[in-house]
Amino acid sequence: MSLKDQLFEDMKNAMKAKEAGKLRLSVIRMARAAIKNAEIDKRQEFEDAQVVEILAREVKMRRDAIIEFTKVDRADQVKKLEEEISVLLTYLPRQLTEEEIRQLTKETIQALGAQSLKDLGKVMGAMTPKTKGRADGKVVNQIVREFLGS
User: Are 142 and 115 within one domain?
Assistant: First the structure.
């Protein structure tokens, strides 16, 4: 079953659950709308890898919004966004832990023979396919900078 099919089935189940699935239903509808809009823009049917990219982008947008809502002390919005993120994460591959990202970074730097921050682009270019959809790019970039800076 493709990821889009899974989203559709979960949407139907959330609709049947009535009030209990209201947040889940709205998040799934939003995700399906984002996928559909991207498909219309690209004029093609998306595969699971492209759907994962869109869902990861939606999670990132919510994490960025959490930072902003935290600054203005809107705990109610932060809680809602965190709940939405937890729903979206169920459709993404297992997220890498910081320790796993560090290990991957160490291996990549050794394989490329990177020495300094001048090699940041080369290392990030190699890291991106390994972490796409499984880790936040900002976190990966910070860890790579940390390794190359020392």
Answer: yes
Statement to judge: residues 63 and 107 lie in one domain = no
Is residue 16 domain-shared with residue 85, that is, in the same domain?
yes
Tokens of 138: 């900002």
Burial class (CB in 10 A: 0-12, 13-18, 19+), 147: middle
Q: What is the pLDDT of residue 68?
A: 94
Reduced DSSP (H G I as helix, E B as strand, rest coil) percent helix, strand, coil of the chain, to 5: 80, 0, 20
* Residue 50: Cβ within 10 Å count: 17
The span from the CA of 15 to the CA of 20, in Å, is: 9
- Residues in the chain with pLDDT values less than 70: 19-21, 150
